[in-house]
Write a structure and sequence with these properties.
The longest helix is centred in the C-terminal third of the chain and has 19 residues, at about 105-125. This protein starts with a strand and ends in a 22-residue tail after the last helix. The chain has two domains: about 1-40, no CATH class; about 40-125. The strands form two sheets. It has a three-stranded antiparallel sheet, with helices on one face. A two-stranded antiparallel ribbon has the order 1-4. It is about 45% helix and about 15% strand. It has helices spanning about 50-60, 65-85, 90-100, 105-125; strands spanning about 1-5, 10-15, 15-20, 25, 35. β2 (about 10-15) and β3 form a beta hairpin. By secondary structure, the chain is an alpha+beta fold.
Length: about 150
């Protein structure tokens, strides 16, 4: 597998953090667990249920010594999310993510989660309704004298 990195970019490889000082291409000649910096979520960004699951799964890839605890946490978070969400697409994706995590297919689980972030965003933070156009008169409160 070939990985191209830009100057200053990080690669998380089997728990080690590698930063390159110039543009490089790296060829991995055997199986390795890695994450590119662009896929890494910071703890303060794990603000929704799906993002919290993503963060827990990410820990398994970044810190192999924490895999057992992170796997238990991610499976518990998935179970809670399955009870909380009603959207069929999210539920289907979560079931798939749970299976991927159970089989230690963590990068694939993260990819599946990233794909449903927009659905979660739309459900949790719906766009406000369109405001009346400027040509329309605003509604005025009415008072009734007794």
């Amino acid at each position: 597998m070939n990985i191209s990195l830009r100057a200053g970019e990080k690669l998380y490889l089997n728990g080690a953090v590698i930063r390159v000082d110039r543009k490089v291409s790296i060829e991995l000649l055997n199986d390795a667990t890695f994450l590119l910096e662009t896929h890494v979520m910071q703890a303060h960004e794990a603000t929704t249920p799906l993002r919290q699951i993503y963060f827990a799964v990410q820990i398994m890839l970044m810190d192999p010594s924490a895999t057992s605890a992170a796997k238990d946490l991610s499976r518990a978070l998935i179970a809670a999310a399955l009870r909380a969400f009603e959207d069929r697409e999210i539920l289907s994706a979560l079931k798939s993510v749970d299976e991927l995590v159970a089989r230690s297919r963590n990068f694939e689980a993260m990819k599946a989660l990233r794909a449903i972030f927009p659905l979660e965003q739309a459900l949790m933070f719906p766009a406000p309704p369109d405001r009346a156009s400027p040509d329309e008169a605003p509604l005025e409160p009415t008072s009734h004298a007794a």
